[in-house]
């Protein structure tokens, strides 16, 4: 895994960094906690430029957040909740989750987008309430971009600074990265298996009706 990602980034360059970070935000195949530190390794080895990697990683992160933002704006809250109710098992997101996320966004506003981009697992989901809350595209790009730049910068710096211990780190990162992917897959399967659709409103109404 370690050699595969670093070799991929060396050959694909900034476009590869952009693509992986965009995919990570749309549907996380490989978490950014693995992508950007590896990019930092490649920078330290002189294969890529630090500024170019930061710009590509940040741009990819923001680009990957846009489909969720636009989907939320286009579908609207009620249609999105109906979609979650129908496909909640596979999305692992229910209508109640959407209500909770939207309430948090309305309470914290722009700060939710800014700091949400710094928190794993929240990074992608924060785009949905931003779209539902009709946050302007300019503000979304600004705060999402600042948060994404801080996150990619931190991860890239970690990989860059550890490059001198490349051989030692690779021995540990490779098995750890496999464990991380395994845990993510297990978590998703657990959410799918244990998902319980919320009771429909009409069913609850019938339960309370006198016989």
From TrEMBL:
It comes from the Bacteria. Residues 30-159 form the VTT domain. One of its GO terms (cellular component) is plasma membrane. Pfam families: VTT_dom. Its main location: membrane. InterPro entries: DedA_domain (IPR051311), VTT_dom (IPR032816). It is found in: Cell membrane. The chain crosses the membrane at residues 12-30, 50-72, 140-160, 172-190. It is a multi-pass membrane protein. Keywords: Cell membrane, Membrane, Transmembrane, Transmembrane helix. The keyword Cell membrane applies. This is DedA family protein.
């Amino acid at each position: 895994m370690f050699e595969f990602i670093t070799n991929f980034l060396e050959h694909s360059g900034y476009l590869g960094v952009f693509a992986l970070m965009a995919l990570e935000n749309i549907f996380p195949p490989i978490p950014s906690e693995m992508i950007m530190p590896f990019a930092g390794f490649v920078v330290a080895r002189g294969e890529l430029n630090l500024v170019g990697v930061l710009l590509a990683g940040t741009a990819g992160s923001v680009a990957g957040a846009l489909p969720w933002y636009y989907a939320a704006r286009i579908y609207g809250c009620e249609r999105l909740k109906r979609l979650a109710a129908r496909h909640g098992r596979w999305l692992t997101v229910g209508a109640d989750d959407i209500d909770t996320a939207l309430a948090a966004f309305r309470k914290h506003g722009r700060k939710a987008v800014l700091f949400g981009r710094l928190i794993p697992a929240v990074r992608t989901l924060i785009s949905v309430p931003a779209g539902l809350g009709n946050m302007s595209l300019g503000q979304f790009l600004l705060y999402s971009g600042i948060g994404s730049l801080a996150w990619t910068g931190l991860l890239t710096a970690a990989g860059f600074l550890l490059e001198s211990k490349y051989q030692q780190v690779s021995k540990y990162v490779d098995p750890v990265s496999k464990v991380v992917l395994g845990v993510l897959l297990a978590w998703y399967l657990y959410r799918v298996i244990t998902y319980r659709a919320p009771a429909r409103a009409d069913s609850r109404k019938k339960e309370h009706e006198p016989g």
